[in-house]
Amino acid sequence: MSFAPSKNLQQEVAELISHYPDGESRSASLMVLHAIQDEAGYISTEAMQWAAGEIGIKPLNLYELVTFYPMLREEQLGKFVLKVCRTLSCAMAGGKELHENLCNKLKLDPNAHGPQTTADGKFSIEFAECLASCGTGPVMMCNDDFHEAVTEAKANEILEGCK
Amino acid sequence: MPQEYKLLLKHADADGYSNDLECYERHGGYAALRQALTIAPAGDNTPQAQLRKRVLDSGLRGRGGAGFSCGLKWSFVRHPNPKPVYLICNADESEPGTFKDRQIIYKDPHQLIEGMIISCWANHVNLAYIYIRGEFTEGAKILNTALAEARAKGYLGKDILGSGHDLEIHVHRGAGAYICGEETGLIESLEGKRAYPRIKPPYFPAALGLYMCPTIVNNVETLCNVKHIVEMGAEAFTKLGTPNNTGTRLVSLSGDVKNPGYFEIETGKVTLGELIHDENFGGGLREGRMLQAVIPGGSSSKVLKAGEIFKLGEEEIALLDVPYDFDTLMKIGTMSGSGAIIVIDDSRDIVECLANLAEFYAHESCGQCTPCREGSLWMNKALHRMTHGEGRAEDADYLKHIAQNIQGRTICAFGEACAWPVLSFVEKFRDEFEAKAK
Fold it and tell me: Where do the domains of chain B lie, and which CATH numbers do they carry?
C-alpha cells in the first residue's frame, strides 16, 4: 500500500516546513504528522516514508515520534474518537463514571484504559491525561470538540450528535 | 472581603468581548507595543536594554511553575549575540489542576501576542514560536487566526510598525506529552525529536537552547504580564501584590469546592482559606463536608493537610491563613507552582487520590532516566495494589523509599514532580496508608 497525499496535504506540508529556519526542517516533524493524521485518520508506515522524504530526514526519525507522543497513532480509530480525562480533578468530578457509562452504551470494556473501537468502526474511546479544564470536570473530547461538565444526559447528546 | 483583581483577565470574560484584533484594539490593544517601540535611547542604554531593566525591576516571576525572575532569566542572554536569539512561549498547559493559560489563549489571544512581540523586541528576537499542547486544537486555530490578523496589520513581519525590527511568530503543536512542559524537553520537541529533557549544565536554554542558540522560554501568563509592565510601568507593577511577589496571579481552583473556577488575585493578598471558602472564590466546601487536604500548586506540589500549623520564624501560621504567593508557600515546604489548587474533602480516600496522580506520572515519565522511568511505575503499581485490597504493612515505607531514590537523581524536575506528592501524602497521611494493609 502506498501513501497518496492530497494536493492540500502537500501544500500544507511545504508551508509547515517553511516555518522553521533553513536547515532545520526536522522541526516540522510533529506538525507534519498532525497534518497527516488529520487527513488520513492515522499515520501509516508509507505516510512516514513519504513525509520523511519531504522533510529530508529518515523515516525512523518520524517513527520514534509516533511511538512517543500519545496523540499520534499508527492505526485507524473510529470515526469519532472520545477522550475522557482520567486525572484527579476530573476523577473527583466523575470522570471514571463517565468513561464507564460511555463504554456501556457503546458495548465496550469499561475497565480498558487505552483506545478501543466499536465493531461498526464509528466510535473509539480512551482515557486521556489532564485536558486542562479541571474546574469544569468531568471533561472529554469528541474528535476536536471539547466538552465540559459532562453529565450522563450531556454524554448522550454528544453521542447522538455524532453522525 | 477579598476581591479578584483583574489585570490579565480584565476583558476576557466581559460581555461582548471577542478574540479578534478589532475588538482587542478597541480596548486599547497594541498601545503598549507602540509605546515600547518608541522608547528613546538613554545614554548607553538601548531601548531594548531599558525594557529588559523594566521587566527586571517589576519583580515579575515566571508563572509556569518555578517562579523564577523573568528579568533575570532574560539577563542570561548576552547582547549583542553572534547567534540568533529565539523566544518560545510555553503554552503546553498540562500540570494537573491548571487551566489558566487556556483562558487567555481562547478568549484574548492578542494579549499574548502583544506580550510576545514586546518581549521579542526587548530581547532582539526575530523568530519565535508558541508551543501549544496538542489537545488545544481550537486554541491553535485561534492563535493562527490572531497571528494572521497581526501580520496583516504590520505588528508582525518585516519592519514592525516602522521600527526596523523583523519578527515572525509560528504556532507549534505538541502531541499529548506532559514532559514537553519542561523547557528543555519542549525545545527537543520543537526540534522534531522525542521530548527528552536536556542535562543542565551545559544545556541552559539561555546559552544552548533551540538549535544550540540562546533561547528564552516563558509561560503564557508571564508574557502577558510583560505587556502590562510596559503599560503601567515597573513601579506601579511592584505595587500590585506583595514584596517579592509582585503583580497578579491566575489561580485555577478545582476539586471539592462549591464554585470551582479560575480567579485573578493580587499575589499574596488573598489567603488559601479565602480562596477555598470565600463567596468571591471557591464558595466553601459542599454541605456537611470537612476539609481533608489541599494540593496548593498543581499536582507536583507537596500536599498540605487540613489543620496544619506552620512555623515561620517566630510566628505560627495556620494552613487557611497562608497568603497565596510564591515565598510563603515555599517557606511552608511546598510551592504555588502553576497556581493550581486542588481541594480534597473528607469524603475522599486520600490513597485513591495519590494513586490517581501516580498513574499520571507513570504514564508521563519520558523514560530517559532509570530512577524516574522505573520508580514512577513501581509507585503506581504499589498504589494500584493498595487501592485494590492488596495493601501491605510495609507499603508506606516502600513508597517513601522509591520516591527518595527518584528525587535528585534525574535529568529534569519530573523526578521531583513525581516524588514529592508521594513523599508528602505518605508523610502527612501515614495512618490512611497503613490502614490499607490487609
Answer: 21-239 (3.40.50.11540), 247-345 (3.10.20.600), 350-434 (1.20.1440.230)
φ/ψ (deg, to 5) at B419: -85, -40
pLDDT, tens only, B26-64: 999 999 999 999 999 998 899 999 999 999 999 999 999
Q: What is the residue-level pLDDT of chain A in tens, covering all 163 positions?
A: 689 999 999 999 999 999 999 999 999 999 999 999 999 999 999 999 999 999 999 999 999 999 999 999 999 999 999 999 999 999 999 999 999 999 999 999 999 988 999 999 999 999 999 999 999 999 999 999 999 999 999 999 999 999 9
For an interface test with A, which of B275, B281, B346, B356 has the most A Cβ atoms less than 10 Å from its Cβ?
A: B356
Size of interface A-B (CB pairs under 8 A): 140
A71/B360 Cβ within 8 A: no
d(CA B143, CA A78): 28
Find, among B260, B313, B332, B333, the residue nearest to B97 by Cα.
Answer: B260
Contact B98, B252 (CB under 8 A): yes
Which chain B residue lies closest to A132 (C-alpha atoms)?
B99
> Among 3.30.420.40, 3.40.30.10, 3.40.47.10, 1.10.10.10, what is the CATH number of A80-160?
3.40.30.10
Which of B167, B254, B345 to mutate to probe the A interface, most A CBs <10 Å?
B254
**A93: closest CA of chain B, how far (Å):** 7
Alpha-helix residue ranges (DSSP H) falling in B218-331: 220-232, 234-239, 272-277, 327-331
Q: Tell which A residues from 98 to 117 touch B, by Cβ distance under 8 Å.
A: none
Q: Which of B176, B211, B348 sits opposite A69 (nearest CB)?
A: B176
Does the predicted interface ipTM exceed a cut of 0.90?
yes
DSSP B50: H
Q: Model-level pTM?
A: 0.97
CATH architecture type of domain A7-66: Orthogonal Bundle (1.10)
